[in-house]
Design brief:
Pfam families: CO_deh_flav_C, FAD_binding_5. With about 290 residues, the protein is of the alpha+beta class. It folds into three domains: about 50 residues, Uridine Diphospho-n-acetylenolpyruvylglucosamine Reductase, domain 2; about 110 residues, Uridine Diphospho-n-acetylenolpyruvylglucosamine Reductase, domain 3 (2-Layer Sandwich), CATH 3.30.465; about 110 residues, 2-Layer Sandwich (Enolase-like, domain 1), CATH 3.30.390. About 35% of the residues lie in helices and about 25% in strands. It has twelve helices and 14 strands. The protein has a five-stranded antiparallel β-sheet with strand order 4-5-10-6-7. It has a four-stranded antiparallel β-sheet with strand order 11-12-13-14. The protein has a three-stranded parallel β-sheet with strand order 1-3-2, with helices on one face. The N and C termini lie far apart (about 55 Å).
Length: about 290
Amino acid sequence: MFDIKDILEPETLEEALELLNQNSQLKIIAGGTDVLIRLHHRNIKDIELLSIRKIKGLDEIKMLEDGSIEIGAMATFAQIFRSDIIEKNIKVLGEGAVSMGGPQVRNMATIGGNVCNGAVSADSAPALFALNAKLKLRSKDNERIVPIQEFYLGPGRVDIKSDEILLSLIIEKQNYENTRGHYIKFSNRKAMDIAMVSVAVVSSIENNKFKDLRIALGVSAPTPIRCSEAETYAKGIEITDENINKIAELAVGSSKSRNSWRASKDFREHLIKELTKRGIKKTIEIEGGEDNE
């Protein structure tokens, strides 16, 4: 049995924000795949839930007038990887979405819940970091935009106030236009397991040189991270195996891997280097394939 004191189900955003404003103890539930597991293990007790599932429009995935892509916080992972907008413009996020759990989980789990849970293993996080995603948060009296790298504060901690709801995630046109991306997840089992290490690579290539290269890691530090030193080194350099190896080595340097029951520090660092190289080479392959179409 779940230890739930009460569950509220507002049908409008305004009603939900008013309820949060009145009661700071309410816990927002989206798909429920994270909260219900914690309840099952008795990590949280006597909880009051605020379900936002009935609020219309929070699951929309749309292209804005300025070319930005807005993904509603209630969009499920199934919706994300089936979206034509995602497939055409930011396929790297769709790859992260389809790697999460099984079909039943993907049909329920939402991108907003995945991010707000603050887990370093979140399958959406590396792609969102590599795409410089921004989060739109609203309270009764205020709305703010937070870059995703500032949203993650530490393991399981994110910058969302008790009276706020995450409305959507925004990927600006400048962060996806003329880029290619790839997401790789390594886990102990091939199916339905959390990542041991995950890597998202987004690249822009011109004249056989990296015009831009973004590398984001999951399960490689207390929060998802970007590999800034590797990215700076890559900018403007020629695409060669030697340079790709150097970039991958610098990516390892950005990580803060540690020993755990799931993997040793040395093994994680080996994975980071190898998966980074594979991710970079895949984006180069995609670029070449599309140029030859």
